[in-house]
Specification:
Radius of gyration: 21 Å
Number of domains: 2
Strand order of the largest sheet: 3-2-1-4-5-9-8
Structural class: alpha/beta
CATH topology of the largest domain: Rossmann fold
Distance between the termini: 53 Å
Number of helices: 10
Low-confidence stretches: 53-57, 60-68
Number of strands: 9
CATH architecture of the largest domain: 3-Layer(aba) Sandwich
Oligomer: single chain
Largest sheet: 7 strands, mixed
Helix content: 25-40%
């Protein structure tokens, strides 16, 4: 029960009570903020808490009723229709960690790479810039992919774009590298997590690599109004026990509004076929 408590709303209520008792103008101000938050779903107090490092959420939580009606495509379409690229918590102007890990695989420029749940990430821009030629970008949101295509201009024609929920993605293609930044932690049901692992096993070539980044046990417990699943090095290794673990490490990510989020990056390799 307490894990769903929103600190900003609690603090607003406390300040309102104090204001009513000793300082009426403060009470009026807090009441106005609460009214604005209810009408616009933008909470100033929450943004202030995020700037000083409060990590229990990375955006305004949805109600329990909304959670029960959750539909992945509808949710993420709404996110990308209402927010600019640099207004989402996971925004990176330069995805340097992913690029470094990809370079460590020593894959050739003809390697087939899939970036799942990519949104309108800048990773594809950078992969094209350094010469990769066979890139697939997948996301459940057509709006996100449209924004990425628009940004790339003519270069978008050199990319394969797929609108799909990764859990339902079907293809005859196989890949040399699977990249996921901030998708896995949104899968909280055991059957969905199991499906995700099976997709990698199915779609990754023997000796292929996959790079996955999710919220660590020191990171947020909610994101984009959704509950998430946190990971550690040990839980990553356990989940992907059918693969060879190469490395795992934690990284602090700063959101566009200055909040700190701790991610864990892990790199694995699919085992080759037995002769």
């Amino acid at each position: 029960m307490f894990s769903s408590i929103n600190a900003s709303r609690v603090i607003n209520s406390i300040l309102l009570i104090i204001g009513l008792l000793i300082f009426k103008p403060l009470a009026y101000f807090i009441a106005f903020m609460m009214l604005a938050a209810g009408i616009t779903n933008y909470c100033l107090m929450e943004k202030i808490l995020q700037r000083i490092g409060f990590q229990n959420t990375c955006s305004t939580p949805v109600s329990q009723a909304e959670m029960q009606r959750y539909d992945a495509k509808e949710h993420w379409e709404n996110i990308y229709k209402t927010k600019k690229s640099n207004e989402v918590s996971w925004y990176q102007e330069n995805p340097k960690i992913s690029l470094t890990l990809i370079s460590e695989t020593n894959l050739g420029k003809d390697a087939k790479i899939i970036d799942v749940g990519a949104g309108d990430s800048n990773l594809v821009d950078n992969l094209l810039a350094i010469g990769f030629k066979r890139i697939t970008v997948l996301d459940v949101s057509s709006t996100a992919l449209h924004q990425a295509k628009k940004r790339l201009g003519d270069r978008a024609n050199d990319v394969t774009w797929v609108v799909s929920d990764v859990r339902k993605f079907e293809t005859r293609d196989t890949y040399d590298l699977w990249h996921d930044r901030a998708v896995l932690h949104f899968l909280t049901e055991k059957k969905d997590i199991r499906t995700y692992v099976e997709k990698i096993q199915q779609l990754l070539k023997p000796n292929g690599y996959f790079i996955v980044s999710a919220f660590s046990e020191n990171g947020p417990k909610k994101c984009s109004g959704l509950d998430i699943k946190q990971y550690s090095k040990d839980s990553m290794i356990k989940l992907f026990s059918g693969f060879t673990h190469i490395k795992s490490f934690e990284v602090e990510h700063a959101t566009p509004w200055g909040a700190r989020q701790i991610f864990i990056y892990s790199m694995f390799k699919k085992r080759g076929n037995k002769k």
